[in-house]
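seq as requested:
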Amino acid sequence: MPRADGFPLADGSPRADGSPRAPSSSERASVSKGWQSRFLAALHCLLRFLVRAIIGALVVLIAWKLLSVGFGARIFPPPEIVLPLFARILSAELLPHLGASAWRTLAAIFLASLVGLPAGIALGRLKSLDSVFSPASYLLYPLPKVAFLPVLLLIFGLGDSGKIALVFLILYFQVLVSVRDGVKAIDAAYFRVADSMGLGVLSRLRYVILPALLPSYFSGQRVAVGTAVSVLFFAESVSASAGLGFYVMDAWMRLDYPRMFAGIFSLGILGLCLFALIDLAQALLCPWSREGVRN
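struct tokens:
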């Protein structure tokens, strides 16, 4: 039976007076070794991601060059024009817009996880709650969240709040559904073992529910992030004075196609960084997941 502070007892039982036993040196060494293995798995994941990113970038550059040759450099500027321009204007022009888009996306991811994780766990564990709220989720989930942009702008104004709320709506339902399904998929035998060990609610959450649902949670985040960045681009192009969506559409209206493609390239960099963060978090938090270790 695990201790309340996370260290396992050497003999599986507390002291005679009922107080928790202090962890031994071997137990502390085991915990330290476990975290070391997690960091090594995260580092391995990051290195593999960088290698795959380089290979993917080469493929994209080749396709980009072929499209430029096919459509003409005026409409489709080649990478040898856009990439040097990107390097020149990154700190002065692009970085503030990239930072604004990254902040809105990360804030929405945090809020969606903060609300969606406990809600999904509750729906997955409580059948009565699931039977009441799942029909509402099925009704709202397929709706295009972009349709709510005018309403959100009226409520939150033209600042960051409306755009964060729009991305939040997209991510929240992804988190809710993936977490709920992940909890429902947990074998009931694990909960029977937890009952026999006398685990409380928090111990069940830590040792049974979270380890089982984290892989499905991260898979849902990968699907949601791509959609979220696309919708954020639309929101920024409609009602913003900062952000990559605003920058790309502003360059397009001024017929400055090299800068427009530099903004599109920045969107790709943003998405790449977000996927790298998700892979790194999965490798660190659930190294037992085959996907988290191998990606």
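Residues 25-71 form the longest helix (47 residues).
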